[in-house]
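To whoever picks this up:

The nightly regression suite flagged Glycosyl transferase as changed. Nothing in the input moved, so I suspect the structure step. Input below, exactly as stored in the fixture:
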Amino acid sequence: MHRHFAFVAPPAHGHVNPTLPLVEELTRRGHRVSYATGAALIPTVEAAGATGVTLPMEPPPGRSAAGQISAEHFAEMMRKQLTDARTSLPTLLTQFTADLPDAVCADMLALAGRMLAESLDVPDVALLPSFAANERFSLHEQLLPTSFDFQHPALTEILGEMRRFTASYGLNQTQQMFPPPPASLNLVFIPERFQIAAETFDHRFRFLGPAFGSRRRSESWQPAEAESPLLYISLGTLFNDRPEFYRMCFEAFADSPWQVAISVGQSVAPSDLGEIPTNVEVRQYFPQLAVLERASVFLSHAGMNSTMESLYHGVPLVTVPQMPEQEANARRVEELGLGRRVPDDVDAGVLRKFVDDVGADEHIRSSVAAMRDTVRAQGGAVAGADALETSLA
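Regenerated output under the current build:
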């Protein structure tokens, strides 16, 4: 029986990209997917086979990386979710009351998606691109400092506003500090072995691992020196305005045995970085999957998508996290022996040593190879589509 699935996610690559292979697999099986997100990513979800539903959401602004999350900053993040919900929910209700879905699959940050599922009285499915949380394992302990003030007036105020907003629609959504309570089905785009406290998660959670779908077939890249070890460097798509870091990489790896590919993003022009060493290639964008197929080490911000892509390809990580979520990922990488985190006061010499050491560490390479096999065995988009079909059977 063919079904109609409504996906809802903020227009951020880190939240939308992990779901695209699932969309492709569902549509390949004859199901229909309507994907609601901001205008910036409508072409992306439509290319995966979904029907785009444009929401009045803007992509997260490019900004400098933050340090520890304060109560004020957390309140601002929650207010952004509430603002998106207030502007998006009327569009969602109009669209999907007229075209009822069999289930609503909502990103962990999409309050409007969770409200839509309750309003329509259809099954709710959570889309989790990073670590999952449950009644026994709290992400707060991983992301927030011990000094965090849970009773801060700004948090009390925004939680009250969220409760009043959901109540105004006659809904019973439980408002709590991020993340939201588990849904009836939770699709987690990381392998169970990478999940912290994995033993506390029950049948409601399906750990799918990463999947790449048509993106894997569409990307290609060849290094200039096929015989040289390849170091790939990227700080992701949000916190990459770091010209001083890229110049430090030039200093660290110029005239080294490493062939280096550096992705600098849209905020930095390669021509503004000064003289580029002959063994370094700088672009604003590299086809990351194709590069990782050939890389020996990934010097990464430790975003979860990049971390999963690195582990899928069996590439050890040297991490330079830019924000608390990435810090948690970097800690997990070290805990599992999959790489090392550089110190905050890193200089060119230390950076070079970390990369050289990780590249030569047989224990790390063995751990990464084992995790690669685990990641590839999780099931990816096929397992996700199976779980969705079974939940509606």
